[in-house]
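Example with several molecule types.
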Amino acid sequence: MSESVPKPSELVQINYRPPRRDWRDPAVEFRKGVFCYSALPKNLTYLGLPNPREWQPFDKDWKLPPNWKQIILDGMRDRLARFRSFRLFMDICVRCGACADKCHFYIGSGDPKNMPVLRAELIRSIYRRYFTPAGRVLRGLAGGRELTEDVIKEWFYYFFQCTECRRCSVFCPYGIDTAEITMIGRELLNLIGCNINWVIEPVANCFRTGNHLGVQPHGFKDSIEFAVDELEELTGVRVEAPINRKGAEVLFIVPSADYFATPHYYTLLGYLMVLHEMGIDYTFSAYASEGGNFGLFTSHEMIKRLNNKIYAEARRLKVKWILGGECGHMWRVIHQYMDTMNGPADFLEVPVSPVTGTRFEHAASTKMVHICEFTADLIRNGKLRLDPSRNDHWNVTFHDSCNPARAMGLLEEPRYILRSVCNKFHEMPENTIREQTFCCGSGSGLGTDENLEMRLRGGFPRANAVKYVKDRFGVNLLTCICAIDKATLPTLLEYWVPGVEVAGVHELVGNALIMQGEKRRTTDLRGESLQPKEDEVHA
Amino acid sequence: MRAVSSLVVVLMMVGLSYAGGRIAVLRPVFGVVVPYAAIAVFLIGFSWRVIRWALTPVPFRIPATCGQQRSLGWIKRAKLDNPATVLGVTGRMALEILLFRSLFRNTRAELHQGPRLAYGEEKWLWLGALAFHWSFLIIFLRHLRFFMEPVPAFVGSIQAVDGFFQIGTPVLYLTGAAILPALLYLLWRRLASPQLRYISLFTDYFALFLLLGIVISGLVMRYFTKTDVVAVKQYAIGLVTLAPTVPAAVTALFFMHLGMVSALLAYFPFSKLMHMPGVFLSPTRNLANTSRMKRHVNPWDYPVKVHTYQEWEEEFRDKIIAAGLPLDKE
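Resulting structure tokens for the full complex:
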């Protein structure tokens, strides 16, 4: 861990008392550890996004276009006319404050502008000043303020300090969704070239190669083949993992981290085992080699540009339906945007499990099914032979990833799977799971190292709930169904709750799955002995 | 400071209305012109805002889901917190609008030694808001007896229920007893909590002081001074029948009440008070979670620049061949 990050005992000294000065003063300080670096000009140029240039948030001069103010105001006008959510959420907040301590960044930082109400007020004050009769006449008295360059800097700071997790929206009496406001805020910032590289580089990679990591076709094939080889070593079974195969029944889309990062990789092994064991006729795609969509953290247009390849590839490969892996924001896009943006998927069929015959009516239009829905159905119908004791070295809890929880309601499927594949499972406190789940603190493209202090602050409520079940039940594994979680929670837990590992749900499925023709399994998918506990006892 | 200045503005309005009731030449102005103007502003402004919201598209189906989705038949789904049917959405909205369901979830996060974060029950805001809004609605409905002749039966029933306990003369209404503490609580929490004080704007206090002024003047008229109810009714009927008169028996105290009601009406469409119609239109609440089940059309959808498979194949041709993957165009 970087040396600049304070110790947990220091970080937790959080001052919740707001400063004396009026919040409409936009001054922000870009302190090391709490913000993300700017997007590289080459990435903006490649994507055709405005104002590519060398700059950093801590620079005094942000090199904004000369007419930046007009661009922002025109951009707001345009979006007020296109999004009822935006217009309504600008109008109806009563500042009751119910959302305030629901935000993980507020809880972890104490910065009052991380209260969702104020995050929205950062734009709302501009909206009132320039777009409402009262604000045009009464200015400050009606809660308005002037749009200055400092306001833009403040927007940048706080809209890239929101993970679009929607927890506040659950508690808002009007359902005001800060994710909508942050999304629009970032769209506006993108109009004048104020964006972060941790978002824009994956976007550029994804547009070009098909995935965020920039893995090219041969690299993709190598990764998948490596996984197949490794699985053979672990289980003695050689699975098929076809790529770009036309005429398969199912197109399987996963987040790219699944085949390029750990602990995601073990989840990939789990998928491959289930799909092989059930004899699913499927294919990966090296073109649609990313389910994730960092367009969601850029603009609505960029979501559509990146998401396009999924249906396009399903059509080209002439599959019947699409299966999707474990990923949070990927599922927000697939569930709530894909069909509207790139549908209709009338060339596909309503997904039917070839194993159980279950028709996934809830995906009748989108034609895409979540792997947890698919596997839960298999288990329910007794199709998978499982030995949960192979997960006995794990004492498991489940972290609901924000988007599957609050944009889908995928709550029971992963739990059902976990209870079937492991013997020791304990829930975290109820205010921190399901629809009230706490974000990992690194979602929406903020999971970069230079932002580590803010990530640790934002992840504090989640980590603290993990600590609770670790202390109480001896939990040593946090499972989740999100690639960003898997990438960032290990760092978070190492900092706040050392001794708890992170895994995907299908990693545990893979551990428990008894495959036909498998050799005697002595290790889990990580290559760790299945009986470390007993050894400890004997020692 | 913002609280004080908004209080001053409201007091100035009170003073002005009082003068309007006291000074003979001003009585028609404050008794007829101002109320009519306020009602006109309210009706036009309110409709204009709602129509504009309604005309603004909902491009994506983005409900915030607060419970289990409808997926596999054997998994129990949250029909109200994550509705997948019109009936479910209606239920969710009814819970939201009538009982403030989301506010009921409210908790308070507290950081203890350890560190240990605890989430305590926090129902006071919910209770205060519910008490205020329901009382306000019932009081509003009760007031219809001034504007209608004969008084509709339901108004009588509401009145009977509201005064059920038959305490004192005139009978104490439960809503009258509830609305004042509720408003004072809502004001108190804004002033007492440093966070709320920090986020509160002039307009937040203004709305509360205005409502307090209306409630207090109303309570004083009913319980502490003699108000000529017949004259008030004569005046109110005159307003609604477009034959306005201002009877001499209508007091300056009544003018204060009337003045603040007029101010509230005129202020309403330009303020956060529009949350009243707005809550019905909130896309995170009033949409069914059928995002994958049914196609949702975006009316302003437009084509975007994409990287097609053919372009991709062309760009990575050598690598695709090297990897032994099939090509579309040999």
